[in-house]
Design a protein that fits this description.
Elements: H1 2-6, H2 17-21, H3 23-40, H4 44-65, E1 80-86, H5 95-104, E2 109-113, H6 122-125, E3 131-133, E4 144-148, E5 152-158, E6 168-175, E7 178-186, H7 195-208, E8 214-219, H8 227-236, E9 260-265, E10 268-275, E11 287-293
Parallel strand pairs: 1-2, 7-8
Antiparallel strand pairs: 1-11, 2-4, 3-4, 5-6, 6-7, 8-9, 10-11
Helix pairs in contact: 3-4, 7-8
Domain Endonuclease/exonuclease/phosphatase: 83-284
InterPro entries: Endo/exonu/phosph_ase_sf, Endo/exonuclease/phosphatase
Transmembrane segments: 12-38, 44-62
Length: 295
């Protein structure tokens, strides 16, 4: 297990992407296992394994903190509120409840992934969110649905990589004279060959071509400690909250990992990112975030 985790420092191996995302968790298991070995017999090899496990654990924590943004003061009034939620594409039984939650959320912008269950509720949602992208607007596909209380100054749907179509949504909204840019991405699973690597390259190109305040949200299917996500973060200048709320798998609760991210690029600043505690039948937890901006 320690050898598999350590391969990230030697070579890129997409087959081990799952291990990379769980580096902190697996390192904790390894530390516990080494301590058991030392209880059975004090031996230099057990001490060596323990040292490696502690180093991997420490570096995992350091990587998860690397892109942490300096949060705005709690007294600062947020510029806008955003919800991001992968509701799971077969979650039709809970679609009405999810629509009710969105309407009552008081979010200014709502990004819904795998949004097909909400298609029958678009008209009802439009009473609160009269502007939307996806599910018939800009594209008939319903993988990504962007809802807004304010009109879009710009909007576009495009593709990332070659595996899936129309999984990147770009928009811009004016908040009291400040234009905020939004990207919503749904990436392939990291162990699907190198498709995610290609998608991250395309996403980086799009993000770096945008001037001004920028928010990126979505389901990355990878934690922030994954080597490819680390490289993407360094080359785009995004910040994230620390600790990021765990969003998957739902059975582990707060002890899972965050594969759903809310990222901001200065001068935009994350004031808070919180998990929506009721997953409402989805295989992900949703996120609620508030943003401020440095004037």
């Amino acid at each position: 297990m320690l050898a598999l985790m350590s391969l990230r420092y030697v070579t890129h191996a997409w087959l081990l992407a799952f291990v990379y995302s769980f580096q902190i968790h697996f390192a904790l298991v390894a530390v516990a296992g080494c301590l058991v070995l030392l209880l059975l017999k004090r031996h230099w090899y057990a001490y060596l394994l323990l040292t490696i496990a502690v180093m991997l654990l420490g570096h995992g924590v350091m990587m998860s903190r690397e892109f942490a943004a300096t949060t705005a003061s709690a007294e600062t009034r947020p510029l806008f509120k955003l919800m991001s939620f992968n509701i799971e594409h077969e979650n039709f039984a809970n679609a009405g409840r999810i629509a009710d939650f969105i309407i009552a959320s008081n979010a200014d912008v709502v990004n819904v992934l795998e949004a097909a269950p909400l298609r029958p509720h678009i008209a009802r949602l439009a009473a609160t969110y009269p502007y939307h992208i996806g599910c018939g607007a800009e594209t008939n596909e319903c993988d990504t649905l962007v809802l807004s209380k304010r009109p879009f100054a710009d909007k576009k749907v495009s593709s990332l990589g070659k595996l899936w179509r129309n999984r990147l949504t770009r928009s811009a909204i004016d908040f009291d004279g400040t234009k905020i840019n939004f990207l919503v991405a749904h990436l392939a699973k990291p162990y699907f060959d190198d498709f995610q690597t290609d998608e991250l390259f395309d996403l980086r190109s799009v993000a770096n071509a945008i001037d001004g305040p920028l928010v990126l949200t979505g389901d990355f299917n990878s934690a922030i400690v994954d080597p490819r996500i680390q490289r993407f973060m360094r080359r785009t200048g995004f910040h994230t909250a620390f600790p990021e709320p765990a969003s998957w798998p739902i059975k582990t609760g707060r002890f899972g990992i965050s594969i759903d991210h809310v990222l901001a690029r200065p001068p935009l600043r994350l004031q808070s990112v919180k998990r929506i505690e009721d997953n409402m039948g989805s295989n992900h937890f949703g996120l609620m975030a508030e943003f401020t901006i440095d004037r």
